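Data deposition worksheet. Section B asks for the primary sequence of the deposited chain exactly as it was used as input, without tags or linkers unless they were present during the calculation. Section C holds the resulting structure in token form. Section D is free text for depositor observations; keep each observation to a single sentence. Incomplete worksheets are returned to the depositor.
Section A, Depositor: J.P.
Section B:
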Amino acid sequence: MEGADPVNKKLAAALSGSAVLVLALSGCSSSDDGNKELDAWAKQVCDALPAQDAKVDAANAAIKSAATDNNAPVNVQKTDSQAFQDMSDAYKALAQAIQKAGTPPGVDGGEKKKQDAVTALNGLSTSYAGLKKQVDALDTKDQGKFADGLQDIATELGKLSKSGNTALKNLEEGDVKSAMAQQDSCKKVAASSSARATTS
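Section C:
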């Protein structure tokens, strides 16, 4: 059963740093006295984050725990498939939350920034759904082929992990960043993101 083990670990390694969002918010504080409309917008977006962040974190943890020595390919496949589905669902939910919140008020280019973030998050959702299909199609009876397939998925996952952290960067600038940083729900996600970064 040794063939896939190093590759399983590569898959797990590719996940490190794939926290959902708002890494940019950690340690951020605001000096302005706020824009009530923008604060209300930020609260709507931030309140959607913890549940989805937790879902992605749990999916990451499941993939990492499946990447143990001597874990049968069929078990790895089942775990990874569910994890990718959960990630896909989480990013889709975040895209919907931002779409529902609408254009951040009083922000230059706010509509484009919002739409770009929604497009990026929907794209991530589609990509993770694609990885689910990829892992579902792997041949668990052939250890070598299974290992090769996981290697391809690990490569893709590495790319997605990076884009997951940049999906909202343009949206999270200036006044939007300040407004989001003041929301308790965003602070919670930022704290859990930085905690994961120090332990991974």
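Section D:
Helices lie at 5-15, 36-66, 73-101, 110-136, 143-166, 174-181, 184-199.
The CA atoms of residues 59 and 86 lie 7 Å apart.
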